[in-house]
Amino acid sequence: MATPQSNRETVDFIDEKLHGPDHVEKVLRTVQIDNFQVLGLRPEDADFYTNYPPEARKKLLRKVDVRLIPMLAVLYLISHLDRANIGNAKIEGLDTDLGLSGLQWNIVLSIFFIPYVLLEVPSNMLLKNFARPSVYLGILITSWGIIMTLTGIVQNFAGLMVTRILLGVFEAGFFPGAVYLGTFWYMPKELSTRIAIFYCASALSGAFSGLLAAGIAQMDGVGGQEGWRWIFLLEGIATVILGIISTKWLDLEEIRYLELQHFIKEGGNFKEEKKKTSWKDIKATMLNWRMYMLAYILLAQSACSYGTKFTLPTITQAMGFQDTNAQLMTVPPYVAGAISAVFFSILSDRFYWRMPFVVTPLAFVIVGYAVILSLDGKLEENVGPAFFAVILTCIGIYPIHPSTTSWTANNLAPSSRRAIGLAFNICIGNIGGIIGSYMYLESEKPKYHTGFGLSLALGASALIVTLLLELSFVFANREKAKMSEVEVRARYTDDELLAMGDKSPLFKYTL
């Protein structure tokens, strides 16, 4: 029997042939041990892998879930707190104390994203070369925690600019690196839910940001420091502590099993395990036009997300809530967004179908912003509809990223191109952060026609792109199905098929 060559085929191979009480017999009937040697595995590795107890497999997955995902979620929560708490600091007087003009405020928000966007791909390439990725990520986390702490002592516009730039430098590698690690440890059918669980920390960061800011701001005057400074100082110190903490939580046998699973998932391309990423992989990824469609969906989502994060405290103020209440009223929309992200992603993994769980949230985004626009800035007179619309937009915004990121990961092969492609798409998507920094103009407050209108347009255009992308995958799969596996193998060698990656006639795109 032929060796599995595609992600989808390998998923079926792992899920259907290796799980269950009679997994060894199924393996021996369907994939002979000799075929593991075709993959580049030693006979003892094949024997170890096929005889790894199903109870141990389930226990290991739970172990990874319990220890990896919560850790990533907490760190991602901290990263978003550290980049978005500037919006909370604003209504506590940051802009007034530092003498920022309206335009300077937008520049401070957007400058973070320039190094953040430019360094994501190089960072993921560097991560792939690190013997211990946890050490690399720990260095990044500790560094941005130090920068966040220093933000609490800036005295002017220039100082704030420097800290925001450095924050972008060190935060750039975390999210794409975390997603790449997820693709290493989890099978494709398990991926979207796991990404959603730690990505929902992005939504919860908005909620925690409001709660923390409301509490910390009460320290105004302590140590002769303004309340907004304590927001940066305390959250920065907490980040440094988390960055330093590290644990060893997998034993050698578990690591060996997961590495073999990853090896087989890649179609057994042992050459792919080399440390350096080739220019051929970079070129193949950059010329993959579908990656740009996926990246645009992330860009639209990111613009809406960051626009909301930076402006929601001001929007709740426009609804008539003041000071601490304005901070606290930002919590419910983000909690709804976090729940929505996990709910839609569970369904996406359950049906192993990404498109509907991108399109449906985008529809919520469109409806939510349409309602807000229709209120024409009269938010205080229409608190109920306005607040409902804000919640609806968050319910729509937050599921889009995990489903789209999983869609990207599922349709890129081998892992070297996946590492580049994930970072590239997240990189392009984060350009939306720059857009989100300028959408809500102080001069348009509280109507924000530009911000709400552009968010509506981005949601609608992303929905159209998603549907077109789905059609392209459907047609591509139909074309590939025209050749039988026998015909494909008669035309191409195994090395050629592996080099083709997702372009291989045996690779079936995930819809």
UniProtKB/TrEMBL annotation:
<feature type="transmembrane region" description="Helical">
    <location>
        <begin position="196"/>
        <end position="218"/>
    </location>
</feature>
<feature type="transmembrane region" description="Helical">
    <location>
        <begin position="328"/>
        <end position="348"/>
    </location>
</feature>
<feature type="domain" description="Major facilitator superfamily (MFS) profile">
    <location>
        <begin position="68"/>
        <end position="480"/>
    </location>
</feature>
<keyword id="KW-0472">Membrane</keyword>
<keyword id="KW-0812">Transmembrane</keyword>
<dbReference type="Pfam" id="PF07690">
    <property type="entry name" value="MFS_1"/>
</dbReference>
<feature type="transmembrane region" description="Helical">
    <location>
        <begin position="384"/>
        <end position="401"/>
    </location>
</feature>
<feature type="transmembrane region" description="Helical">
    <location>
        <begin position="355"/>
        <end position="372"/>
    </location>
</feature>
<dbReference type="InterPro" id="IPR011701">
    <property type="entry name" value="MFS"/>
</dbReference>
<keyword id="KW-1133">Transmembrane helix</keyword>
<feature type="transmembrane region" description="Helical">
    <location>
        <begin position="289"/>
        <end position="308"/>
    </location>
</feature>
<feature type="transmembrane region" description="Helical">
    <location>
        <begin position="453"/>
        <end position="476"/>
    </location>
</feature>
<feature type="transmembrane region" description="Helical">
    <location>
        <begin position="230"/>
        <end position="250"/>
    </location>
</feature>
<feature type="transmembrane region" description="Helical">
    <location>
        <begin position="102"/>
        <end position="121"/>
    </location>
</feature>
<dbReference type="InterPro" id="IPR036259">
    <property type="entry name" value="MFS_trans_sf"/>
</dbReference>
<protein>
    <submittedName>
        <fullName>MFS transporter</fullName>
    </submittedName>
</protein>
<keyword id="KW-0813">Transport</keyword>
<dbReference type="InterPro" id="IPR020846">
    <property type="entry name" value="MFS_dom"/>
</dbReference>
<feature type="transmembrane region" description="Helical">
    <location>
        <begin position="165"/>
        <end position="187"/>
    </location>
</feature>
<feature type="transmembrane region" description="Helical">
    <location>
        <begin position="422"/>
        <end position="441"/>
    </location>
</feature>
<feature type="transmembrane region" description="Helical">
    <location>
        <begin position="64"/>
        <end position="82"/>
    </location>
</feature>
<feature type="transmembrane region" description="Helical">
    <location>
        <begin position="133"/>
        <end position="153"/>
    </location>
</feature>
